[in-house]
Design a protein that fits this description.
With 333 residues, the protein is α+β, with helices and mostly antiparallel strands. The chain has nine helices and 16 strands.
């Protein structure tokens, strides 16, 4: 993937920001809320992109460690990101249920795409596949990032191909690529995914702010080269440049960030995330300023009833769903 030299300087900057943001977000992004966003304007042309952060292993295809749907409105210049927890329980073609992050191992990005389209009941226009091993290189090319580490973080994973060791102390500090990926991957038993999600949101916001800073502009050619080599996508350069025209508007207006509503659960010792399908689909439409028809609402309720009927009796839910809230970047205009 390359960018032609006759592109304008501004187009290069925002095309780079788009690609790099996809790469970084594809590895680390997630956030939570439960209330649908009020419709303010009629939707323009909505483009939906599935972003997968893939954890490839030496002995298998790997899993999609991070999954999300990014939607942008070409007319209104707004964007929404829905994170899909990797433990989300979905039905596969053989009528058996499994975690959605296993879809990539079963059939690559095409299988993941089918599972996401069925879950959201919407068409996905494009995909972006990111190898999470590229994450440290991208952060290093940016010159690292200043981050306030909120707590002592220590964890060892002997089964990781690279022998993952997370070893960070609290306080504001400068993180290079390797230490940055420790920060965004850390998860403890006390906070679980909720704590990790909050840190990832804070980190991605810092990355996007840094990408748009004057100090980073001279580094963009090298950052773009690394990101381009680490991303597989069906987006054409012309489509990226069309999207790049929206990037500045999205950056100024703030990115709406949500996680699909649902509850953590356990079955036979395995953790799952049970989505609230009707609420998810209503939130997705509302977040993208799309009106809800009676037909759409009826189908969403019917699909949720069918999903609930397939939940095994031995499924144990957490006592209460995790606290959630909508987080949006502040208006920069």
């Amino acid at each position: 993937m390359s960018v032609k030299r006759d592109y304008s300087k501004v187009q290069k900057i925002f095309a780079a920001a788009l690609l790099i943001a996809s790469a970084v977000i594809g590895v680390v992004m997630a956030e939570n809320d439960e209330a649908p966003i009020a419709v303010k304007k009629p939707a323009g042309k909505i483009v939906n992109i599935m972003v997968l952060g893939v954890d490839r292993r030496a002995d298998d295809t790997g899993r999609s460690d991070t999954m999300m749907v990014v939607s942008y409105d070409e007319v209104n210049g707004t964007a929404t990101l829905f994170s899909v927890p990797r433990d989300t329980r979905v039905k596969y073609k053989n009528d058996k249920y499994d975690k959605i992050n296993h879809a990539y191992a079963y059939g690559g990005h095409k299988e993941s795409l089918m599972r996401v389209e069925e879950l959201f009941d919407t068409k996905i226009d494009h995909y972006v596949l990111v190898d999470q091993r590229a994450f440290p290189k991208i952060i290093d090319a940016m010159g690292g990032l200043l981050v306030d580490v909120d707590k002592r973080m220590y964890y060892e994973d002997p089964w990781d191909d690279d022998g993952l060791v997370i070893d960070l102390y609290p306080g504001e500090q400068f993180l290079d690529g390797n230490r940055a990926i420790q920060y965004v991957r850390y998860r403890d038993e006390e906070e679980g995914d909720i704590g990790r999600i909050k840190r990832q949101q804070k980190f991605v916001k810092a990355v996007l702010d840094e990408l748009m800073s004057a100090e980073t502009l001279p580094k963009l050619p090298e950052i773009l080269r690394i990101a381009a080599d680490s991303v597989e996508t069906d987006l054409q350069i012309s489509e990226m440049l069309s999207m790049a025209d929206v990037i500045k508007s999205v950056y100024n207006k703030g990115l709406k960030v949500k996680t699909i509503p649902g509850r953590p659960a356990y079955y036979e010792g395995i953790s799952y995330y049970i989505p609230s399908i009707a609420e998810l689909r209503k939130n997705f439409k509302s977040a993208n300023n799309i009106s809800l028809t009676d037909e759409f609402l009826a189908k969403a309720e019917k699909d949720e009833d069918a999903y609930k009927s397939d939940i095994p009796k031995g499924m144990k839910f957490d006592e209460a769903p995790p606290a959630t809230e909508l987080i949006e970047d502040e208006d920069r205009e």
